[in-house]
Design brief:
Shape of chain B: globular
Helix content of chain B: 25-40%
Number of helices of chain B: 4
Largest sheet of chain B: 5 strands, parallel
Order of helices and strands of chain A: HHHEHEHEHEHEHHEHEEHEEHEE
Oligomer: heterodimer
Largest interface: A-B, 29 and 25 residues
Number of strands of chain B: 5
Radius of gyration of chain A: 50 Å
Number of helices of chain A: 12
Largest sheet of chain A: 5 strands, parallel
Shape of chain A: rod-shaped
Strand content of chain B: 15-25%
Amino acid sequence: MAAFQAAYAGPIPAARSNLFLIRRVEKCSNFLYDYKMRTFQEDLDVQLKSRILVIDDDPGLTLTLSAILSKAGYSVTAANSGREGLETFRKNLEPHILQVVLLDIRMPDMNGVEVLKELKKTDPNVGAIMITGNADVESAAASLYEGASAYVTKPYNINEVKFFIQKSLERQKLMVHNAFLMGRLQEWNIELEKTVQEKTEELKSKNIILLDVVEKLNLLNELKSRFVANASHELQTPMTSILGFSSLLLDYWDNLDRSQIIRFLGIIRDETQRLSRLSRDLLDLERIQDGKINLEYKKVNLKEVAGQVSENLRVVKNTVEVDLEFEKGAIEVWTDPDKIAQVFTNLMGNAFKYSPDNTRLKVAGRARKDVVVVSVLDQGPGIPPDKREKIFEPFYRIRDDVTNHVRGTGLGLSIAKAIVEAMGGVIRVEGFLGKGSDFTFVLPKNYRNPEN
Amino acid sequence: MEKKILVVEDDPYTNELISNLLSTRGFNMISVTTGEEAIEYVKDNIPDLVILDLLLPRLDGWEICKILHKSGTKTARVPILVVSVLSRFDSVVFGPEMAGVSFFSKPFEAAGLIAEVERIFKKTP
């Protein structure tokens, strides 16, 4: 008993017996794991072995019973005392062996009912058939409450014994089947739960992706709406001047003096030009951003382009001098001549606008590996660091007194950025607030060049 | 006595247009290009009408409306005519701070703006 407890130390008896049943089922069901349900019973039965244990202090009786039952095809073990019986029972305890114990009630060391209690503690499903003399019928009947399957009275009918053994084995088999089914059911439940959980996770992650896409689309949509609204406002401003001044001239011509008339007509002309520039720029930006323009790449001399742009701009404002400083390897680039000229015009045009009179503006080209780095440096007010990304957005203007009398379309930098990016380059602005801006773009030297 | 009209408009040509237009009708025009200048002006002067653009740098038209029409101030009862490219039907444009404010859309014809200004003066002599 002590040895046994040491070996099974740990779990409390009830839990241990449940574990035992589960182990028994596992061991059997391992073999049939992949079998279909309708065949499981036969397979389980093949795996299950039965064993009869006869416990009686009368050696003659155990011998007779053993002999009879062996002959009937059972595997029989005998024990001549309660303690010996318990030990044998525990030794034979195996998940795939169903044990039926034939138990004499009156024994000297431990009586049958005590032995039964111990047996039940070890395996609650054990089949026990009590053997009793006439005098003990009452305690035999009481043993049924302790979990005995049946009792027979001496002298017993061997067929009756066989019958009870059979019944007990059947009952144990049913218990095993039942446990097996429960186990499978639990497994399936777990599998099902796992599948549901996996699918839910999958849906969740897909949902997150979708939400992300929707959010991005919403953002794009919002940007587009804002762009359209801004474009409309920007178009309305010159139109206000054109409609207002022209109707003023028409309705109040006689009240106006000559200098006013000339001034108002001049404004109408300027604003019409601005409107035209604005609508052309809008279309340009849209087409460049959507990749709808064909860039015609050829060998272009950047220094010459910058020089030409500088000459054009100085016609309008000649109080600003331009220095062109191009390194030898930064002069020739494979690009679209018209579009790169537009980039120079927009960047240098801004630089001219914001340069105070009698200052110098520098356009520098440096060669770096496979790219050229072109910088346009002015001595204007510079751009605050927090505005440096925003100024490339359409219609973004730094609302400042300085820019108030500078009238552009608000699209120059957006267009320059779109062109540079279409040519495989990047553009950014640096510099120091109050000390001027540094607009720099980087272009690959041989973008889309068939010779490379 | 001729009416004083304060024009708050950051677009120089539009500002010039409104000032010239209403000068021909004998109004005394004061023009500024920022909200700050407008607030500075009303410290010592009370105009008879404020013509106000909405999209202004920093201090915008909505803020100026709130400041001018704050109860208890000298300008609380001065009529405001908002002249904007925005739509008057846009709830964002025409918020609660614009209660009691007249609205006129850009672009406009000379005679239209004059008629609107005269209508306001007839209502509030």
